[in-house]
Amino acid sequence: HPGLKMRHFLTRTVTESDNVFFTCLTLNPAPIHLDHELSKGNDNALSSDGSEAGSGKPLFNSMFTLALLVGMSVPESTHGTTVANLGFSEVLFPKPVYPGDTLRAETTILDRRESKSRPTQGIVTLQHSAYNQRG
């Protein structure tokens, strides 16, 4: 039902190994994800108020963060009921994620409607949000 909010039970502490493996696997050699020396200089630039400072750790690859968020949402929201993911309308990364952060997820149902092309199926619009241990 639209307005229903689910806090997902799966959480995950992300590791430097996760970041390096995913970054290399997806052929994204950006130094901001891999270079500790560069990260020391960018620490304050990546946080709006210093509270999100990563203590010189490389910034987590945001595509991993997105994939993890969607994965954590599956058991309570779409497992066994989804025919296809039709896409994402808006993806934002308002705060950085660093190795050692523990992420949790929430999903809110925004809309649902019958499919015009498949009368036995429907389309549900979800909003997924991820939070670290600092909120």
First-residue to last-residue Cα separation: 26 Å
| Structural category | alpha+beta
The helix/strand order is EEHHHHEE
**Radius of gyration, CA atoms, in whole angstroms:** 17 Å
Largest sheet: 4 strands, antiparallel
Strand content: 15-25%
Please count the beta strands (DSSP E, at least 2 residues each). 4
Residue-averaged pLDDT: 85
The low-confidence runs, each spanning 5 or more residues with pLDDT under 50, are none
Structure characterization notes:
By secondary structure, the protein is an alpha+beta fold. The protein is built from four helices and four strands, in the order E-E-H-H-H-H-E-E. Strands 1, 2, 3 and 4 form a four-stranded antiparallel sheet that branches. The longest helix has 16 residues, at 62-77. It is elongated.
